[in-house]
Design a protein that fits this description.
6-stranded mixed sheet; binds flavin-adenine dinucleotide; alpha/beta
Length: about 325
């Protein structure tokens, strides 16, 4: 029997798993094919890849800054150099943008290195039999664990574990906003000398030049395009069926860049239904000592990698 069954391999899941694994028997279960959750990195060919979720890390708190410096020293992270254009002119600050040396799933990779991970293992339901938890997976397997920890977005948590959560917690009003992201590669186009562009546009709000991260050398130009929240809200449920959605995002970028449509050699669109909760909650993490069920996730604190990391560390303190 496991001491802790951790649901999710994103920043929160891998952080809490790493801390608890020093003392307890821990395993991670994730419905996805690989590590990282919303910080995952998608391989195109060979070493060429896209960060299609998290774009960069910009630490604010003292604790997280210290951790980022640690990863920087280990060469797991580096600074994303180059020109970062901001056409919104919202903030004058020029904060450093940290990225993973090999991909922005760096925190999960580093922390979950020595932990048993079960991918393509979607948790369908949980049952507390008064002694331990029975965690039921979509492949009909049942995992026995003394404690369970959820790190998924709030709507998914409520669906699976709602009846075991305290009312005050399960009744939280958490509004998780969507994002539509397109990964696109062009053949032999002139390199645009910028690393990222923040647009002042109702549809396309962000474009990241994957080549500028200097993780690979290629004659292909790889870009990650992200939509505005407002536009994503309209199309998040239909983007898969309606190709117009993807085409609209792409034509915005073609107009801006001057890149040719017939030079596109790859495109893939991913809809993030639960991307960010901009408002946080009164909790940093949740732990029910009696039932031994816990929650840590970014949305409890904010909308960033840092929020996920802080939430996991907060939960670890409660468990200890
Ligand atoms: C498009 C986009 C851009 C972003 N850009 C940035 C940025 O530039 N900087 C920044 O700091 N933050 C950014 N964020 C936010 C950042 O991604 C999150 O704050 C952080 O990754 C959340 O980590 P987490 O571990 O709490 O959750 P997640 O990463 O969502 O992890 C939850 C995990 O649970 C798994 N899961 C869900 N349900 C189940 C189930 N039933 N069974 C098993 N597994 C399950 C999921 O597959 C997932 O791996 C961005 C997010 C998005 C979507």
């Amino acid at each position: 029997m496991l001491d802790f069954c951790i649901i999710g391999s994103g920043v929160s899941g891998s952080t809490i798993a790493h801390i608890l694994s020093k003392k307890y028997k821990v395993e991670i279960f994730d419905k996805a094919r690989g590590l990282g959750g919303r910080a995952s990195n998608k391989r195109f060919i060979k070493k060429q890849s896209f960060d299609h979720g998290v774009q960069y890390i910009s630490p604010r708190s003292k604790e997280f800054k210290k951790f980022i410096q640690f990863l920087l020293k280990k060469k797991e992270l580096k600074i994303w150099e180059g020109n970062h254009l901001d056409f919104t002119f919202e903030k004058k600050e020029s904060k450093k943008k940290f990225i993973g040396t090999k991909g922005n799933n760096v925190i999960s990779k580093y922390y979950a290195k020595n932990i048993k991970k079960n991918f393509q293992s979607s948790v369908k339901s949980i049952f507390f039999n008064n002694y331990f938890w029975e965690v039921k997976l979509d492949n009909k397997k049942v995992i026995k664990a003394k404690s369970v920890i959820f790190t998924c977005p709030f709507p998914q948590l409520k669906k699976i574990a709602g009846k075991y959560l305290k009312k005050k917690f399960s009744k939280l009003k958490i509004n998780m906003e969507p994002n539509i992201t397109t990964m696109i590669a062009f053949k032999s186009q002139k390199e645009i000398p910028v690393s990222s562009i923040k647009f002042n546009d109702d549809i396309l709000t962000w474009a990241a030049n994957e080549n500028s991260k200097k993780r690979f050398n290629s004659s292909n130009s790889l870009w990650t395009l992200q939509s505005s929240v407002k536009w994503a809200k309209k199309f998040i449920n239909i983007y898969k069926k309606n190709k117009k959605v993807e085409n609209t995002l792409i034509s915005k970028f073609l107009n801006f860049s001057g890149y040719k449509k017939n030079k596109i050699i790859f495109k893939k669109t991913h809809g993030w239904k639960y991307s960010y909760n901009f408002h946080g909650s009164p909790y940093k993490s949740y732990w029910d000592k009696k039932l031994r069920i816990g929650v840590c996730a970014d949305w409890l604190i904010g909308s960033k990698v840092e929020s996920a990391w802080l939430s996991a560390n907060n939960l670890a303190k409660k468990i200890k």
